Amino acid sequence: MTPTSYKVVCIPEFKKYPSTEFDIEIFSYCLGEWNTYQVSCPQQVIWDYGLRKNLVISNGVTYWIEGRNRIIAYDVTDNNIKNGGHGCRLINLPEKKGDDKKYYECLGESEGFVSYSRCENGELSVWLLEEDYLSRGWVWRLVHNIKIKDMILAENCDSWFMDKLASGEMVNLDTLAFNPVDPNVLILAYPISIIFAYNIRTRLLKVFVSYHHYLFVTYGAVPPLVLTPWPTTL
Questions:
Q1: Which has fewest Cβ within 10 Å: 4, 92, 120, 186?
Q2: Per-residue pLDDT tens for 69-91?
Q3: CA–CA dist 140, 155 (Å, integer)
Q4: Cα separation, 230 vs 232, whole angstroms
Q5: What is the pLDDT of residue 225?
Q6: Measuring CA to CA, which residue among 137, 14, 16, 27 is closest to residue 81?
Q7: Phi/psi of residue 6, nearest 5 degrees
Q8: Rounded-to-integer distance, Cα 55 and Cα 87, Å
Q9: Are 110 and 178 in contact (CB under 8 A)?
Q10: Which whole number is the average pLDDT over 57-68?
C-alpha cells in the first residue's frame, strides 16, 4: 500500500530557554515544502536533550518530554494548522519518587496508546495516557509496577546479572522501547551489557542480546528504532 500523504516533523533545539515560544518545522507531502511555525506554550518550557528517545506521534499529535517532568503535546494535523492552532498543551508526568537524576524514562506508543515508563530506586513503573472527560484534561493510569528483583529471570540470563540481583544490590533497567503491537512487552536494557524483552503479564525477563560487561566499551548508544508493522496486500 502506498501512502497518499505524510508529514515530517522536525523540532530544532530551542533558541532560548526557558521560554513560552519555540519553533517547529513541518514538511507536508501535499505541499511539497517545509514550513516553520512558532508554537506558544501556556507556561515556560526548557529543552530536553533526551528528545530523540522520548518522542511519539499518535493520532496526529506530537508528544515529547520537556525538561521539567512534563510532556509537550502539539497537534500537527491540517485542521489545527489551518485554523491558526499554533499553541501546545503541557501534560504533567507522574511524580518522581527519589533522586531527580537517578532514573531512566521512556515515552512511546503501543496499540495506539501513548505510554510512559520510568525505572527508579530499583522499581519499574508503566503508565498509559488517558483522556479525563470530566476535567477535560489528561491523566496517567498506572498499569504496571514491579521491583526489578521480583522479575522472573529466563534461563538465558547471564549468571553475573543473576548474582547482582541476588546480592540485593539496587538495579535500574532502562526502557528502550515499547512493543508497537503488544502492550505487555517492553524492551529493556542493563546499560552497556544486556538488552531484554520483558513481559508485563508474565513478569518474565528474557535476554535478547548480551555483551561481556567487562570487555564491551562504548561512549554512547543509540536507542533502537521500533517499526510498526505495515499492512500488506496479497
A1: 4
A2: 899 999 988 666 665 667 899 99
A3: 34
A4: 6
A5: 57
A6: 27
A7: -160, 170
A8: 18
A9: yes
A10: 89
For β-strands 113-120 and 103-110, DSSP reports them as antiparallel
Concatenate the DSSP letters of all residues of 178-215 into one string: E-SS-TTEEEEEETTTEEEEEETTTTEEEEEEE--TTT
| Euclidean distance between CA atoms 78 and 35, whole angstroms | 12
Collapsing DSSP to helix, strand or coil, 140 comes out as strand
Bond into 229 cis (ω within 30): no
Residue 232: pLDDT band by 50, 70, 90 thresholds?
very low
**92: helix, strand or coil:** strand
* High-pLDDT (> 90) share of the chain, %: 38
Q: Which residues lie across from 10 on neighbouring strands?
A: 25
DSSP 30: T
Reading the block at residue 100, the C-alpha cell is 531527580
Strand 204-210 versus strand 152-153 pairing type: parallel
Query: Which grid coordinates are listed for 57?
Result: 506521534
Q: How far apart are CA 234 and CA 230, in angstroms?
A: 13
> Are 204 and 198 in contact, with CB atoms under 8 Å apart?
yes
Report how far residue 234's alpha carbon sits from residue 226's, in angstroms, rounded to the nearest whole number.
24
Strands 70-75 and 89-92: antiparallel
C-alpha atoms less than 13 angstroms from C-alpha of 185 in its C-beta half-sphere: 12
Which of 7, 11, 9 has the alpha carbon at shortest distance from 32? 7
Residue 167 CA, chain-centre distance (Å), reads 30
> Which candidate, 48, 64, 190, 184, places its Cα nearest to that of 126?
184
